[in-house]
């Protein structure tokens, strides 16, 4: 049985609460705004807020992307020169402002200003995420597997892979827009953005493209195609996309490469099992770790250009991945499409659960609560606990 038939039967099966890092102040240049949403992505809520409240997307600060098919509470910052009050928005074929939301049935979100803070939120700017998750179809063989794998996680943590949300925040999961950009192929990048690897007979007929896709497009995507219709080059049209959308292409590809570094490292060093992931990719999980104290402190860079790798096993793993996917060193810190891509940074290889608690347990269902540090994914943990 697939993972999401067990943990996401309804949005209420997957509840996420951000624990923010910012503290309210008497004075400040930004409002801290609570965003509660049901069955809608973070990026979509930002676009709706931007459109209805006339606030440029770049002015809205947020700490992370939260699952779409879930009930989540997170926080935004908005400059105090914009008016902000309690508002609710519902999606029923189109977005509409409403007085309140039926949280048991409707899809949408509400925002509520809490007070002022001194600076805007940025990605990763929170203390932790708290998850309350219901697992269904929790039959006997699954229960045994869950408790056995939880014992491994309790002792050794679990691999800090990027979860599927990191790859679903752009249009296509089966291709990487950034690979086209790095080759200077902006038209290929646009085609990948709209259609992935699918072939399209009318590509290049911008009027037909506009007419076909228009009902499902965001306003900035319509602007992009209108630009192509006016004769803009593919590169200039690409720059019409908001910068936070363009940056997602970079994040998605670098996250994929990082996951591959970690998978290769685990497979060379530890006893492991492979578990299916999206797009026929695989994630490998350790089942025994003799050097857990070392692993706790291990950080893996995104490129290794700025943060040199001393661990020989990790260095070999990274080189194998870069060779396999044809990644060139001259791509690191490169400016392309109005953004700097393939930058270096560090991410912990392992993550450990905090405050794990079983809230409810029946013959066919279990409800658990736990916290994870920012940037770590509950779905990555659950893939291992439930073995896909």
TrEMBL record:
<feature type="domain" description="TRUD">
    <location>
        <begin position="157"/>
        <end position="352"/>
    </location>
</feature>
<dbReference type="InterPro" id="IPR020103">
    <property type="entry name" value="PsdUridine_synth_cat_dom_sf"/>
</dbReference>
<dbReference type="GO" id="GO:0031119">
    <property type="term" value="P:tRNA pseudouridine synthesis"/>
</dbReference>
<keyword id="KW-0819">tRNA processing</keyword>
<dbReference type="InterPro" id="IPR020119">
    <property type="entry name" value="PsdUridine_synth_TruD_CS"/>
</dbReference>
<comment type="similarity">
    <text>Belongs to the pseudouridine synthase TruD family.</text>
</comment>
<dbReference type="Pfam" id="PF01142">
    <property type="entry name" value="TruD"/>
</dbReference>
<dbReference type="InterPro" id="IPR001656">
    <property type="entry name" value="PsdUridine_synth_TruD"/>
</dbReference>
<comment type="function">
    <text>Responsible for synthesis of pseudouridine from uracil-13 in transfer RNAs.</text>
</comment>
<feature type="active site" description="Nucleophile">
    <location>
        <position position="67"/>
    </location>
</feature>
<dbReference type="InterPro" id="IPR011760">
    <property type="entry name" value="PsdUridine_synth_TruD_insert"/>
</dbReference>
<dbReference type="InterPro" id="IPR042214">
    <property type="entry name" value="TruD_catalytic"/>
</dbReference>
<keyword id="KW-0413">Isomerase</keyword>
<dbReference type="GO" id="GO:0160150">
    <property type="term" value="F:tRNA pseudouridine(13) synthase activity"/>
</dbReference>
<dbReference type="GO" id="GO:0003723">
    <property type="term" value="F:RNA binding"/>
</dbReference>
<protein>
    <recommendedName>
        <fullName>tRNA pseudouridine synthase D</fullName>
        <ecNumber>5.4.99.27</ecNumber>
    </recommendedName>
</protein>
